[in-house]
User: What shape does this take?
Amino acid sequence: MEVTLQVNGTRRTVDVDPRVSLLDLLRERLGLTGSKKGCDHGQCGACTVLIDGRRANACLALAVAQDGSDITTVEGLADGDRPHPLQAAFVEHDAFQCGYCTPGQLCSAAGMLAEGGPSAITDDLATDPALTAEEIRERMSGNLCRCGAYPNIVTAIVEVAR
Assistant: This one.
């Protein structure tokens, strides 16, 4: 099937098998290897991308279902040679060790910062809570880091959230 996507600001039209995941399309057909294949079951978040501005596990999204969507991968977060504020904060706060989860963490954090609204731990559901470290940990809970760099990841996101 023919699928047309806006990927990191560039319109891409490709023929894909209807069973191909968005992750496999990005990595194997479009050469965008930033998004990682971790568990391939939607449990680790290493493949997180933004689909129409909302974070999603690319390993669970069928490519054909994204026809006409705007996809942002970690490669598309930067503004030319200028890194995204989250990317700069991750470097500044040493928010990665092996780096395997970092692309998914960055895309998830970018989507989370744009989302707003209450989370599962928000006391007052009628308000948009401050993004405290506790709120950020809850909202980022779908992205795992086997190295345990969570404290620095949260610190980097808190800095950008301000």
